[in-house]
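Chapter summary example.
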Amino acid sequence: MPDELLNDPALASTLRRLVVEPRVAPGGTAAVAARSWNGQWVFSTGAAGQLEYEEYAPPQRVRPVNPDSLYDLASLTKPVTALTCARLVGQGSLSFTTPLGAILAEARGTPSENARVEDLLSHRAGLLPHVEFFAPLRQLQPFDLNRALVMAASARRDECTGDIPAQGFAPLYSDLGYLLLGEALQRLTNKPLDELMNEQVNSPLRIELRSARQWAAHGDFLTRVAPTEIVSWRGGLICGQVHDENAWAFAGSGSAGNAGLFSQATDVAKLGMALLDALDGKRSEFIEPTLLSTLVAARPGGTLRAGFDGKSTVGSSAGQLFGPGTFGHLGFTGTSLWCDPDAHIVAAVLTNRVHPTRNN
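The structure predicted for these 360 residues follows.
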């Protein structure tokens, strides 16, 4: 395992200068790793800023951010969903070509009945980018999961008609496919999704990307986790619950396929390190390179891959120094993971830029 540095001064200074002082977020953490010539990872972490709880009620309303502070990963959950799928494919429980309707009853008779697992993972099932399935909860009405699943599977874009092409429709980033996949994986395995992710990803890699209810079992969750947004209809400050409203509606304090996991920057970076090692054939006990390549390989029509994104040519959050083969993902709450397989470099940055409002 890498030699972890506690709050590396250079990383802390960078976070203060680029995140805290310009008020991008109240604070943040980062972890950076590089694989040296002998195959060993050189690793450091940094933290800056504070956790501002305001009207919430931990013992202190303000706490310093530490390298082990926990952040809502938001859509960084999607790579974990994709890896869970790929592991199940490797174990023979699933195929990338399995149609959604074969494992999710609510999809049958909808335009997504024959959407393949790979179509959903790569945002090529022709689905709308977003639907407010949580809307009944905002009106203090009950949430009907089965109805929401039928709606999600039926939410085909107008321009995507007929059968799904062999390479899928033109890609468009969509949470809906991951909400459907998350529920399908639970039906397939008869396990809650967060437990399945723990079994398939956390345990073999010895990392902790966990749901709110899993972290709550540790007892110190509310003293480590960064609050996100103040949302009146959800009772005020969101702290220790997933920020994404659809994930909250679908899974509560568990995890949905699109969002729901929390972690610290070190473990997010360790996930990236394991992926680069696996691509080089060094983690075959976790995942075979061919399976992982199905997820991270570039695809036509844009930067979207399967569970991951590539580096855009202009304005990428990966910056200018990460190479063209870089893959990773962003999270709406202010999180990111980028992995450069050519330079053997991984960077994870976690912030709560939606605090106190997503309009920041």
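To summarize the output: The first helix runs from residue 9 to 20.
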